[in-house]
């Protein structure tokens, strides 16, 4: 497992963690993996509700513990290329975006979490790396990394993201 993230600055002074992944699959397939509840369940969680109402309730299922559902507001949904969602829960406020493009049967996903305090980046980045490793596995039909894999890789990934933060401050 490698660290693939980069950091950018938000207009309000926050930090955005940006991760880019490529999948050997059509854009519609990757889009389905991030927007259809049964496909999302393979790597992240499930959702209930009617997206046409502007929000859904998302229950994360990958971490092995009961997690209460969170409301995700759908700010932008342009199938199969762009999704922006926003949530507020016990862990804070999150804005997530996914930009997808396809070239010759390979889909590129640019995933970002916006507005992060720099001191949280070493925790946020590794978490999304793990989830996107799981998405990669789900898209190609294999089992993804386990929570044990995440725990084993966490120290090196935290260090890599801490280094990215330090580079931006230098």
Report on the structure:
- This protein is 33% helix and 38% strand.
- By secondary structure, it is of the alpha+beta class.
- It has a single domain (5-169), classed as START domain (Alpha-D-Glucose-1,6-Bisphosphate, Chain A, domain 4, 2-Layer Sandwich).
- The protein has an 8-stranded antiparallel sheet with strand order 1-2-8-7-6-5-4-3.
- Strand 5 and strand 6 form a beta hairpin.
- Helix 3 packs across helix 4.
- The chain is globular and about 45 Å long.
- The mean pLDDT is 92.
Uncertain residue segments: none
Which range does the strand content fall in? 35-45%
How would you describe the shape? globular
Tally of individual domains: 1
**Top CATH class:** Alpha Beta
Helical content band = 25-40%
Return the CATH architecture: 2-Layer Sandwich
Instruction: Output mean pLDDT.
Output: 92
Number of strands: 8
């Amino acid at each position: 497992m490698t660290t693939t993230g980069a950091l950018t600055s938000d207009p309000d002074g926050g930090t955005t963690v940006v991760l880019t992944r490529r999948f050997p699959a059509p854009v519609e397939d990757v889009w389905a993996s991030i927007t259809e509840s049964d496909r999302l369940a393979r790597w992240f969680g499930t959702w209930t509700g009617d997206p046409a109402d502007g929000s859904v309730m998302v229950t994360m299922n990958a971490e092995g513990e009961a997690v209460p559902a969170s409301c995700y507001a759908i700010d932008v949904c342009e199938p199969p290329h762009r999704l922006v969602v926003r949530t507020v829960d016990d862990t804070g406020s999150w804005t997530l975006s996914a930009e997808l493009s396809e070239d010759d049967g390979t889909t590129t996903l640019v995933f970002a979490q916006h507005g992060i305090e720099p001191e949280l980046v070493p925790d946020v980045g590794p978490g999304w790396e793990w989830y996107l490793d799981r998405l990669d596995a789900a898209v190609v039909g294999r089992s993804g990394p386990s929570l044990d894999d995440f725990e084993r890789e966490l120290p090196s990934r935290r260090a890599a993201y801490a280094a990215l933060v330090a580079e931006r401050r230098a």
